[in-house]
Design brief:
- By secondary structure, this protein is an alpha+beta fold.
- The chain has ten helices and six strands, in the order αααββαβααβαβαβαα.
- It folds into two domains: 98 residues, no CATH class; 163 residues, 2-Layer Sandwich (Muramoyl-pentapeptide Carboxypeptidase, domain 2), CATH 3.30.1380.
- The strands form two sheets. A four-stranded antiparallel β-sheet has the order 3-4-6-5. The chain has a two-stranded antiparallel ribbon with strand order 1-2.
- The longest helix is centred in the N-terminal third of the chain and has 48 residues.
- The model has no long low-confidence stretch (mean pLDDT 89).
- Bound molecules: zinc ion.
- The site of zinc ion (ZN) has 5 residues, from strand 4.
Length: 308
């Protein structure tokens, strides 16, 4: 302990000694500089009074060069500092982009959608006005008591949903399940014929108008067996007013819990290409239906999300 104290004392003294030494020499140097400066000024005055301007000119040149040198050094230094600042700003911006909560949330949504697609791509088959059903598409049929056919994979969830709907005090009617292409063609042709007869439209105009309410053969979800039209028991006219029918309203609100989505929701016509059809339910499985419901996504928007 004593030894440590001694060593510390020694080091302390050395530092003080060095400080005193440097200070003494600085003082001497400063005195010498002051002396030289005074002599120089006197010499300058003497020469100038004798009309010898050379020293004065050299002095002025030296001062100008000195100032220029300082300015240049200053500029160089500030430029370097600016570069550093720009770099820091860029880094900060990058950080903000990667940590933007909206971007983060979107990336998370995409990852979730991709995982769901991996699990249930077969139930998520996309059929709409621009995506015809693949040729030779087939599935295991199940015939319901009412005579309509559905894809067997939809059966259990459909039964559970309709039972819950009944328990909530609502009576339903299954209007339409699977339609083969011939049936779809028949419906389409009937619609055209009625438009020609009742509204006097040309065949071409009638076809275009019919396609707005009935899908062309090959383009209807009903051909997949994964779509089902359900109305109230005594309210089987399929139009928008069904949205306020208690049975349909209950189904619209709860179907996602049983793996169904309202395939053509209100306000999404520009995305789906179809008018609001509160009666048309599409089976996609509970996981996908809940995801689409919670994030207000149509099947088209789901595919946009996963970049397909
Ligand atoms: Zn339908």
């Amino acid at each position: 302990m004593e030894r440590v104290k001694e060593v510390l004392q020694f080091i302390g003294l050395k530092i003080i000694g060095a400080g005193q030494f440097v200070w003494a020499h600085l003082k001497i140097g400063f005195k010498k500089l002051r002396k030289w400066f005074r002599r120089y000024i006197r010499k300058l005055i003497r020469h100038t009074k004798a009309k010898d301007y050379s020293l004065l000119i050299y002095t002025i040149i030296a001062i100008i060069v000195f100032i220029l040198a300082i300015v240049l050094l200053g500029k160089l230094f500030s430029h370097k500092k600016k570069n550093k600042e720009v770099k820091t700003t860029t880094e900060t911006t990058t950080e903000i982009i990667t940590e933007d909560p909206a971007v983060e949330a979107h990336n998370q949504l995409v990852a979730q959608a991709n995982a769901i697609y991996q699990n249930s791509s077969e139930l998520l088959v996309l059929v709409n006005g621009s995506h015809p059903i693949t040729e030779g598409y087939s599935f295991e049929h199940y015939t319901l008591n009412c005579g309509e056919d559905i894809d067997t994979r939809m059966h259990d969830d459909l039964v559970n949903m309709l039972e819950a709907c009944n328990e909530a005090g609502n009576e339903y009617r299954i209007v339409s399940g699977y339609r083969d292409q011939a049936k779809q063609q028949q419906l389409f042709d009937e619609k055209i014929a009625s438009l020609v007869a009742q509204e006097g439209l040309s065949q071409e105009d009638a076809e275009a108008k019919a396609a707005m309410t009935i899908q062309r053969p090959g383009y209807s979800e009903h051909e997949t067996g994964l779509a089902i039209d359900i109305s109230g028991l005594d309210n089987a006219t399929l139009d928008e007013s069904l949205a306020s029918d208690p049975t349909v309203a209950w189904l619209d609100q709860n179907c996602h819990m049983y793996g169904f989505v309202v395939r053509y929701p209100d306000g999404k016509t520009d995305v789906t290409g179809e008018v609001f059809e509160p009666w048309h339910f599409r089976y996609v499985g509970v996981e996908a239906a809940t995801f689409m419901h919670d994030n207000n996504l149509t099947l088209e928007e789901f595919y946009q999300l996963i970049g397909m």
